[in-house]
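Work package 3, deliverable 3.1, input record:
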Amino acid sequence: MSAVQEVVTAAPAIEAVPKRAMTLGTGTSLLVLALLIMVPLFVKNFIIFQMTMLLVYGLAVLALNILTGGSGQFSLGQSAFYAVGAYTSAILMEHVGMNYALTLPVAGVICFAFGFLFGQPALRLSGVYLALATFALATAMPQLLKLGYFEHWTGGVQGLVVTKPDAPETVQSVLSWFHLKMSQDMWLYYFTLAITIAIYIFSVNLLKSRSGRAFMAIRDNEIAASAMGVDVALYKTLAFGVSAGITGVAGGLGAIAVQFVAPDGYTITLAISLFLGMVVGGVGWLPGSIIGSAFIIFVPNIAEGISKGLSGAVFGVILFLVIFLVPHGARQVALVAQHLIGRFKKR
Amino acid sequence: MELFVNQILAGIATGAIYACMALAVVMIYQAIDHLNFAQGEMAMFSTFISWQLMQWGVPYWGAFLLTLILSFIGGILIERLLFKPLAKAPILTHVAGFIALFAIINSVAGLIWDFTIKQYPTPFGSAPFLGSQLISTHQAGMIGVTILLLIALYVFFQYTRFGLAMRAAASVPESARLVGVNTSWMIALGWGMAAAIGSIAGMLIAPVVFLEPNMMGGVLIYGFAAAVLGGLTSPFGAVVGGFLVGIIENLAGTYIPGVGNELKLPIALALIITVLVVKPAGLFGRPIVKRV
């Protein structure tokens, strides 16, 4: 049985709410947004950095969600696209001297092309086979980055150091009227937040659009979709391209935030983390991406805190608990909560 | 020419490792229709158990047999406790489950036996085999055991009632259930057998790559490559695929300029992708026909 069919058999309980299934309500969205804007004002720089990474991984999980939740394809190779994005940004900033903000669209476009091309052979594969092919891509990527041929650009095993950008002059001068200063971390956080919001809105609209419906038609039944006139090959590769493009932007942002790129930062572990983030957040539920991202950033730390030697085991057990208790991830929790609130209001 | 022959011999020797692992991968794929990403870790854990038994003074073959039985039971237990409740869950959940299993086993093994590298004994000795410096008696023994295992599996699947029932349960579960096959237990049995075969692979590989919790990382990827090359549905293909991957890896490392040790892994991966694209069923696999 192919993955496409299995995704369908898994989904019906949730597909009953088609219009709102992909997003949060307006009120909740504004609340989350307000939180994301306000919190950094009150916390330390390190936590701001962690929140930046939360958004960066959130973007990467979101990208995977478009691919899997949207078009029903499967990828364990997102770390490869993430790495390409990160390296594109880093090389453009350090070797070409380009402005950091301008490197992101370039990273996005290059990754889009890469993903679109990789989508071509992936067209013939589904389910386990696609998982394997993308798994292979993710495992090969660090080795390829270490290659001697590219060492002049990539820095080989050593990697590249990226300079952290300051807040722009105009922002700083406006703030100085109020005797405030903006740290680099905080500036980077808001910069990332703005991009994240833009991409989130883009993704929601993409999935609501004609293309998004085509993705979902392919996910639900490929043969029926092609009978309805959907160009299956085009849309499947397009989904790969868009997903890779967004991951690339996330990778670029990640490189700027961490200030460092090295081959060993983009191993299969990263791809697996992103995949777990998607499963925990709920497949096909875009706001879940940020929850999934929080899971992959904080749960390993929590596991380490519970037991140093057994951190892997604790992580695995938590993951099993999530799978057993809420197989549809955070989306399920959100739906139950919504239901409860609805009943509460009626009383 | 001598270099060429030597490289092929060396390739066959490493190929035996991959063949063992690929056999376990195919075994579980037959039973549950998924690739078990935790397969290598399960094999590693079994190997540690046998090592511990030997430390306690059990002779090699005694430990070998005991480990086989323990792994078989362990495999069944994992299926009954963790994966049976997930039987109806989507494939994504299964993959997440395998990853969780991977993390748990790896970490527990590290805690019990720590991460230092350990010597592992071989029952075949490590003298040169038939005067060749490239294949040791251990590697020859490994090839022999792999082939024996393959024959045993073939006989089991083709000529016993259990084998027939397992094949039926894997390929058409509904019909198998209708004629009275307990499909749920067949899956558990598949897990048990895969774990036992994995433990054999682990015990044969350990003298070569040494015993430590991360010993299976690379081997599993080559095992996947071998299984895909030979066809995920064919145990025979998996073994042939294993030897082929070993040979290709060695020849590419010797003859293609620029492919040093660092590029060997990407070669296995390029092989996976090429085979999947050109001939997804593999060399000996059945093509999957889907009913519309």
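The mean pLDDT of chain B is 83.
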